[in-house]
């Protein structure tokens, strides 16, 4: 009887360790991507229709940040103080201040009529530190899973519960 309990405890510990290894592996991969791409968020999901037809809601964008100057026409992801969600829009104007070398940036969604000044939290321009990254690639529609889990959190909890149950009950 003790050997059966011992085996069950050992199996449970093995499953918990396997789940922990999966989580740690995902974190290591994410941190590695952060180092390679030079941005805190190497992957973002397009959450609105403001960039259609180029990018649609649910597309995943891959970001990179380099020291190269930001140019008009580039797709950037920016975040301003007081806003929780980053915004994906196109740079429409870049103004370099000769005296300091700093760059002022103006953006606009391709599907929007107006520029983004109203989104800048009272600032007339974005500065380089607001830019999280530049779009270097995308996967269409793959981000819908994130959107659905954000808009309907109960689905996220069901999915986490099912995955946890599968880890616990697997006969590995």
TrEMBL record:
<dbReference type="InterPro" id="IPR001733">
    <property type="entry name" value="Peptidase_S26B"/>
</dbReference>
<protein>
    <recommendedName>
        <fullName>signal peptidase I</fullName>
        <ecNumber>3.4.21.89</ecNumber>
    </recommendedName>
</protein>
<keyword id="KW-0472">Membrane</keyword>
<keyword id="KW-0378">Hydrolase</keyword>
<feature type="domain" description="Peptidase S24/S26A/S26B/S26C">
    <location>
        <begin position="33"/>
        <end position="136"/>
    </location>
</feature>
<dbReference type="GO" id="GO:0005787">
    <property type="term" value="C:signal peptidase complex"/>
</dbReference>
<dbReference type="GO" id="GO:0009003">
    <property type="term" value="F:signal peptidase activity"/>
</dbReference>
<dbReference type="GO" id="GO:0004252">
    <property type="term" value="F:serine-type endopeptidase activity"/>
</dbReference>
<keyword id="KW-0812">Transmembrane</keyword>
<keyword id="KW-0645">Protease</keyword>
<keyword id="KW-1133">Transmembrane helix</keyword>
<feature type="transmembrane region" description="Helical">
    <location>
        <begin position="12"/>
        <end position="33"/>
    </location>
</feature>
<comment type="similarity">
    <text>Belongs to the peptidase S26B family.</text>
</comment>
<dbReference type="GO" id="GO:0006465">
    <property type="term" value="P:signal peptide processing"/>
</dbReference>
<dbReference type="InterPro" id="IPR019758">
    <property type="entry name" value="Pept_S26A_signal_pept_1_CS"/>
</dbReference>
<keyword id="KW-0735">Signal-anchor</keyword>
<dbReference type="InterPro" id="IPR036286">
    <property type="entry name" value="LexA/Signal_pep-like_sf"/>
</dbReference>
<keyword id="KW-0256">Endoplasmic reticulum</keyword>
<dbReference type="Pfam" id="PF00717">
    <property type="entry name" value="Peptidase_S24"/>
</dbReference>
<dbReference type="InterPro" id="IPR015927">
    <property type="entry name" value="Peptidase_S24_S26A/B/C"/>
</dbReference>
């Amino acid at each position: 009887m003790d050997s059966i309990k011992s085996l069950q405890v050992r199996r449970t510990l093995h499953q918990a360790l396997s789940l922990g290894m999966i989580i740690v592996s995902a974190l290591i991969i994410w941190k590695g991507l952060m180092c390679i791409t030079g941005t805190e968020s190497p992957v973002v999901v397009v959450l609105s229709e403001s960039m259609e037809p180029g990018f649609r809601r649910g597309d995943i964008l891959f970001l990179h940040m380099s020291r190269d100057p930001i140019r008009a026409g580039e797709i950037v992801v920016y975040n301003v103080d007081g806003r929780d969600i980053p915004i994906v829009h196109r740079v429409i104007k870049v103004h370099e201040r000769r005296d300091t070398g700093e760059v002022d940036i103006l953006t606009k969604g391709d599907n929007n009529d107006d520029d983004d000044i109203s989104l800048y939290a009272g600032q007339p321009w974005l500065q380089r530190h607001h830019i999280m990254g530049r779009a270097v690639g995308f996967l269409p529609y793959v981000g819908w899973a994130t959107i659905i889990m954000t808009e309907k959190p109960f689905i996220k909890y069901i999915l986490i519960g099912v995955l946890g149950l599968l880890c616990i009950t697997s006969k590995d």
